[in-house]
Specification:
It holds the Pfam family FtsK_SpoIIIE. Keywords: ATP-binding, Membrane, Nucleotide-binding, Transmembrane, Transmembrane helix. It comes from Actinomadura fulvescens. This is FtsK/SpoIIIE domain-containing protein. The chain has 447 residues and is of the alpha/beta class. It has three domains: 93 residues, Threonyl-tRNA Synthetase, Chain A, domain 2 (2-Layer Sandwich); 32 residues, no CATH class; 269 residues, Rossmann fold, CATH 3.40.50. Helices cover 38% and strands 26% of the residues. It is built from 15 helices and 16 strands. A ten-stranded mixed sheet has the order 8-7-16-15-14-9-13-12-10-11. Strand 3 and strand 4 form a beta hairpin. Helix 1 packs across helix 2, helix 6 runs parallel beside helix 13 and helix 11 packs antiparallel against helix 12. The longest helix is centred in the N-terminal third of the chain and has 27 residues. It is elongated. It binds adenosine-5'-triphosphate (ATP). The site of adenosine-5'-triphosphate has 13 residues, from helix 6 and strand 16.
């Protein structure tokens, strides 16, 4: 090769490298699908046996293999040189390590997922314990184990933490009672559908992102034909800015008890309406009769249950009963609750434990004590608890979110400032029905 050709080859290589760099820089997603993913697939298949062996996930089995045996040479040559050996190929049964069977490696925007067939005697937890080792072997941010079918698991590898930057949602999708709050760690949008999971707990330590999540919910629900109700036991400082879009706002326990009883009364009205029309729930009613869904946000729920003295006992008991009944009956009658607080533990009274059991949607932000995580997620997979305890303080908005099917995800809410939520509340203020009209209270009769 002459010098000129050498320069030409170098030039072409440099141009290709620069092009690849630019492609990766300006359009990382297509670069991942076009170049990164195929290379990773090759790497995963080629190294699977070694990786699983390192993670102690292989099993040993006897198999026929061609072996190369060193045999001492017999005869006169051996006598003259004791170390003379002869190599001989032989087929015989030996112990070999067998890796679990790997399915197709399928791409996701943030990495890949692959089905693995468990060896007899293995359980998904064996892989969960090895997840960190797998992540290091594959040079990725994390590996999650999803178990949906007996005998099989799916490994979900994420190349980088998709929860570092959350792109703002594109606005309401048009589906009633569906809100997009942010992203899940698998890169999918974090979506709550109140019709599927009607009531939610939102817990976390101070500054963990609970209020931001409420802002995101308000911003997403504001354009929808839904009535919003606020219980702000911080004296109204959290929800007052959103008052234009709220049909009712209670800012202390006395107001909360009255509002909860109104809400329960409305549940009973809806129940009567459904009974009259032979409908099992409001969604089965003719559209023109169907009442507007109500979403109630309760901030600092502990304040509803704390008692300074015995005189408050009755009020606390009424609150607990009303909340519990709304939660038990609300789903069929389109009344939904989101209950937020730093703790929603049994120390607040027996009513709270019963209430918590009925709140099937769980969102647990960073917590300071393991009991809070346990209280929010304790009845789910223990790995969800571990993941909640690992949420770092420098990642507000990151939470473990679980629906009623028991699957859980690391997720992060989109950052929604108070100003953005307030702007949405003002922009859609006309959609807020008057509370008395909504619950059918006749004020003229009362006067
Ligand atoms: N998803 C997010 N992305 C980026 N920053 C966030 C996110 N969620 C919250 N933050 C930031 O973290 C800080 C605390 O958030 P937030 O007020 O929601 O916490 P909190 O749990 O309600 O705290 P407190 O209980 O003290 O009211 C805020 O400054 C907010 O800007």
């Amino acid at each position: 090769m002459d010098v000129q050709t050498g320069y030409l080859v170098l030039g072409v290589l440099a141009a290709a490298a620069a092009g690849l760099w630019a492609w990766r820089h300006w359009h990382p997603l297509s670069f991942w699908y076009g170049i990164g993913y195929p290379l990773r697939v090759v790497h995963v298949y080629l190294t699977w046996r070694a990786v699983t062996s390192g993670c102690k996930l292989t099993r040993s089995k006897r198999a026929f293999r061609v072996t190369l045996d060193a045999l001492p040479v017999v005869g006169p040559a051996a006598r003259s040189a004791a170390n003379v050996v002869e190599y001989k190929r032989r087929v015989r049964r030996v112990d070999v390590e067998q890796a679990p069977r790997l399915g197709l490696v399928l791409p996701t925007p943030y990495g890949w997922r692959v089905r693995v067939k468990l060896h007899d005697g293995q359980i998904p937890d064996d892989y969960a314990k090895a997840a960190e080792r797998l992540a290091h072997a594959w040079r990725v941010h994390g590996v999650r184990v999803l178990a949906r079918k007996p005998g099989k698991i799916t490994l979900l590898a994420t190349r980088r933490d998709p929860l570092v930057h959350i792109a703002p949602s594109g606005g309401w999708s048009g589906e009633l009672l569906v809100v997009r709050l942010g992203n899940l760690e698998n890169g999918e949008p974090w979506v709550i559908d109140f019709r599927a999971v009607p009531h939610w707990i939102n817990v976390g330590a101070t500054q963990s992102g609970k209020s931001n999540l409420c802002n995101a919910i308000i911003k997403e629900l504001a354009p929808q034909p839904v009535a919003l109700v606020g219980f702000d036991l911080k004296g109204g400082v959290e929800f007052t800015p959103y008052a234009p879009r709220l049909s009712a706002l209670a800012t202390n326990r006395k107001e909360s008890v009255d509002l909860l009883e109104d809400l329960l009364g409305e549940v009973h009205n809806r129940m009567a309406l459904c009974r009259t029309h032979g409908a099992r729930n409001v969604w089965k009613l003719p559209e023109e009769l169907r009442p507007m869904p109500i979403v109630a946000l309760v901030d600092e729920v502990a304040e509803l249950f704390l008692m300074a003295d015995k005189s408050e006992k009755d009020e606390v008991a009424r609150t607990g009963t009303a909340l519990l009944r709304i939660v038990q009956l609300g789903r069929a009658f389109a009344v939904y609750l989101i209950i937020c607080g730093q703790r929603i533990g049994s120390d607040l009274g027996p009513g709270v434990t019963a209430l918590r059991a009925q709140l099937s949607g769980r969102i647990c932000h960073r917590v300071n004590d393991p009991e809070t995580a346990n209280m929010a997620l304790g009845d789910l997979d223990p790995a969800a608890l571990d993941a909640a305890r690992l949420i770092p303080a420098e990642a507000p908005g990151v939470a473990i979110a679980a629906g009623q099917d028991g699957t859980w995800h690391r997720a992060r809410s989109e950052y929604v400032s108070e100003e953005a939520a307030e702007a949405a509340a003002y922009a859609y203020a006309t959609l807020a029905p008057a509370w008395d009209e909504l619950i059918g209270r006749d004020l003229t009769a009362a006067a």
